[in-house]
Automatic annotation (TrEMBL):
Transmembrane segments: none annotated. InterPro entries: ArsR-like_HTH (IPR011991), WH-like_DNA-bd_sf (IPR036388), WH_DNA-bd_sf (IPR036390). It comes from the Archaea. Gene3D superfamilies: Winged helix-like DNA-binding domain superfamily/Winged helix DNA-binding domain. This is Helix-turn-helix domain-containing protein.
Length: 125
């Protein structure tokens, strides 16, 4: 596969988004992630193998279609939850004849924004 060109901003390239949406397993995962789910829950709900679920979640996260959140597990350690992170995806043609992608996201409250920051900090450790 040819790598997608770098996007002009911090968002994913149209190619990355379209490849994720064109994938049947990715679409199945998106249908089940209206509410946060663990990868284990997704394996059961989607009837997809463990290695495939993790590959598809990586693809969906790279396309900014799924949000990964780490939560502290009361029994120790962290648990990672995945949730669909868009309300609408628009692919458009720019004035310079290039494609652009716009991803409309649901509003986040202060607690969700703080959880996102905490999750990203955990990745740095």
């Amino acid at each position: 596969m040819v790598p997608a060109p770098a996007p002009s901003d911090d968002g994913p390239s149209p190619e990355v988004v379209l490849e994720a949406l064109d994938d049947e397993d990715c679409r199945t995962i998106l249908q089940h992630t209206a509410e946060p789910m663990t990868a284990t829950d997704l394996i059961d709900a989607c009837d997809i193998s463990q290695s495939t679920v993790y590959r598809k979640l990586d693809r969906l996260c790279a396309a900014s279609l799924v949000r990964e959140q780490d939560r502290i597990n009361p029994n120790g350690g962290r648990v990672t939850l995945y949730e669909r992170d868009f309300e609408d995806v628009t692919i458009s043609m720019e004035s310079d004849d290039t494609f652009a992608v716009t991803i409309d996201r649901p509003p986040r409250n202060a607690g969700e924004r703080l959880a996102d920051i905490w999750s990203k900090m955990g990745d740095e450790l």
